[in-house]
Write a structure and sequence with these properties.
Blueprint (H helix, E strand, L loop, with lengths): L4 H20 L7 H25 L8 H44 L2
Helix pairs in contact: 1-2
Length: about 110
């Protein structure tokens, strides 16, 4: 299903306006209308960006908050894996250093 970028843009702008209206008339911190408008805005943005990319190969300079959090989680996972690799490499280096010290001690005793 291909979406026309112009139509997706109009839907996105309507979602921005609805989110603004819901936010401006918030009744509580957990106002269901604001939450629904937030989700609709996120969905409309993704549809617009997908349509823009498919039609023109262009992206927006924006990222959804959930996407940013997912990337941070992925980066944290990568860092943990890198740390494990580094620990293994450090253990290998330690063994090599021990051999070097043993050779040096042998050389000094000659």
């Amino acid at each position: 299903m291909s979406t026309d970028p112009s139509a997706a843009l109009e839907d996105f702008l309507a979602a921005v306006r609805e989110h603004f209206a819901a936010s401006a008339h918030r009744t509580s911190d957990t106002d269901a209308r604001v939450e629904a408008a937030y989700m609709a805005l996120a969905d409309a943005f993704e549809l617009y960006e997908d349509a823009l990319y498919k039609e023109y190969g262009e992206v927006t300079p924006f990222e959804l908050f959930d996407d940013v959090e997912d990337e941070r989680d992925d980066d944290a996972d990568d860092s943990e894996e890198d740390d494990e690799d580094t620990d293994d490499e450090d253990a290998d280096d330690y063994d090599e250093d021990d051999d070097y010290l043993d050779d040096s001690e042998d050389d000094s005793s000659r």
